[in-house]
Amino acid sequence: MTLKYGIKTAINGLKTNKSRSLLTILGIVIGVMAIIIMMSLGEGAKQLIVGQIQSIGPKTITISPGRRAKGPANILSTFSDSLKEKDLEALKKKENVPHLSEAMPIVFGSATAVYENETYQPGILGLTEFFSKMFNLYPSQGRVFTEDEVKSYANVAIIGSKVKKELFGNEEAVGQKIKIKNRNFRVIGVFPEKGQVSSLSFDNAIIIPYTTAQRYIFGIKYFNSIIVEADDEKNVNQTAEDITNTLRTSHNITDPDKDDFSVQTQVQAMEMINAILNVQTAFLTAIAAISLIVGGIGIMNIMMVSVSERTHEIGLRKAIGATDKDILNQFLLEAVLLTVIGGIIGIALGAFFSFIGALILTKFTALQWTFTFPVFAAILGIAVSAATGLIFGIYPARNAALKNPIEALRYE
Questions:
Q1: Same domain, 215 and 113
Q2: Is 19 exposed, middle or buried (0-12, 13-18, 19+ CB in 10 A)?
Q3: Helix (H, G, I), strand (E, B) or coil at 170
Q4: Domain residues for 46?
Q5: Strand spans (E) along 28-155
Q6: 59 within a domain of the structure (yes/no)
Q7: Are 14 and 338 in contact (CB under 8 A)?
Q8: pLDDT digits (tens, 9 = 90+) for 349-385
């Protein structure tokens, strides 16, 4: 029996009971669709996060308080108030970190902002005037606060687009005063809609001098993090090493295992994010693949029923010359065709729902989520679908091939 004739016979066999064929491939469709969605959204998340990390430039180094947890026993060590003003001053000394271009402390939290009868609870970011250059973020109205305003604990604020909408609506915001923690702040600027940059959401934030935030809003004397920019990309690794040595000296640390801070370059951040997302995507895909196994078992069961119902047909075909191999190939082809068709439908539905998901995430989260069609996942889906049909179709196909033609012809 030629392959062309075998495929034609298998298609005719599937057409005889279309509803059963469609129900049979449902598990394959769901499994492949889930894999496509998981891998597409996982790749979209990876591109988004990596893009946000890259948006602040390859020369950027992040210093976080507390050491990285290596297990449940020291998870609390990641929460620390170890970064303080003396550390910032030490980092800015040329003899300590010669390739440092700028160092910006960050403090953050949330508080209720009030304007007349309107209230809103945005994020409060305490930064220096350097943030505008570092994040390439400039007010669409008004201005950025100055270095003198940072040093003098000035009560000035720049508000995000969402904060402006919630507190002022269509009114002019620049020049108005808002109250935070019973303290009046003059609005000196409004940001255009920006979305999230790195881990910071500027649309839903009020930016004030970090000195003001520390003293009057949060009542703290430490930083939540420090962002450092090297003078040249080629000096990033050396700068990270100099920062580590400077902070160890500042904190009187001689044992690296007792570091109460962590230093991370953008390359290291991207490597870590990629590793986490790859593991997460693989895990979710493995869970989705379970439905392929369930679908394969369903196909085997349905094919067994099909073999039983078509016993007379098998006997008749053998009586006119069909070999055991011809019968085996026919039922194997039917199983493989079912799973491949299910795989194709699953890929199409997975791509469609992934695209819709990307649109929804972009519209309702202000994230620039990019739809990505996972070509590898599509190829893998077809291959796994065909393999599923082959593996789970062998047993019923072999049962059909081994039927005695005389007994099969007598079967009613």
A1: yes
A2: exposed
A3: coil
A4: 3-52+272-410
A5: 60-65, 100-110, 113-115, 118-120, 123-127, 141-142
A6: no
A7: yes
A8: 989 998 898 888 777 655 667 788 888 778 877 887 7
| Paired tokens of 65 | 């308080």
CA distance 164 to 135: 20
Residue 57 included in any domain = no
Collapsing DSSP to helix, strand or coil, 201 comes out as strand
Residues in Cβ contact with 43 at an 8 Å cutoff, skipping those fewer than 6 apart: 281, 372, 374
Residues in the chain: 412
d(C-alpha 264, C-alpha 277), whole Å: 18
- Cα–Cα distance for residue pair 337/220, rounded to 1 Å: 67
Query: What pLDDT digit, counting tens, does each position of 267-277 carry?
Result: 777 677 777 77
DSSP 8-state secondary structure symbol assigned to residue 264: E
263 has which bridge partners? 63
DSSP three-state, residue 101: strand
Residue 146, H or E segment: none
DSSP string, 12-68: HHHHTTHHHHHHHTHHHHHHHHHHHHHHHHHHHHHHHHHHHHHTT-TTEEEEEESPP
Same domain? 356 vs 279: yes
* Calpha distance 357→144 (Å, rounded): 36
Question: Alpha-carbon distance 122 to 181, whole Å?
Answer: 13
Helix (H, G, I), strand (E, B), or coil: what is residue 222? strand
In a shared domain, residues 246 and 282: no
Domain-terminating residue out of 259, 286, 305: 259
Quickly tell me which residue has 């369930």 as its tokens: 294
The two three-digit tokens of residue 134, written as one number? 């570092």
Task: Evaluate whether 266 touches 58 at the Cβ level (below 8 Å).
Answer: yes
pTM of the full structure: 0.60
Identify whether residues 312 and 244 lie together within a single domain: no
Tell whether 122 is covered by a domain: yes
What tokens does 165 get?
């909408």
Q: Which are the contacts of 54, defined by CB distance < 8 A and separation ≥ 6? A: 266, 270
Number of domains into which the chain is organized = 2
Residues in the chain predicted with pLDDT less than 70, given as ranges, are 1-20, 49-57, 67-80, 195-200, 270, 281, 284-285, 288-289, 291-292, 303, 305-318, 322, 364-368, 393, 395-397, 399-412
CA distance 109 to 225: 12
Q: What would the pLDDT profile of 102-113 be if each residue is shown by its tens digit? A: 899 999 998 999
In angstroms, the CA 72 to CA 41 distance is 30
Looking at the domain assignment, is residue 362 inside a domain?
Answer: yes
Q: Which of 259, 281, 303 is the C-terminal boundary of a domain?
A: 259
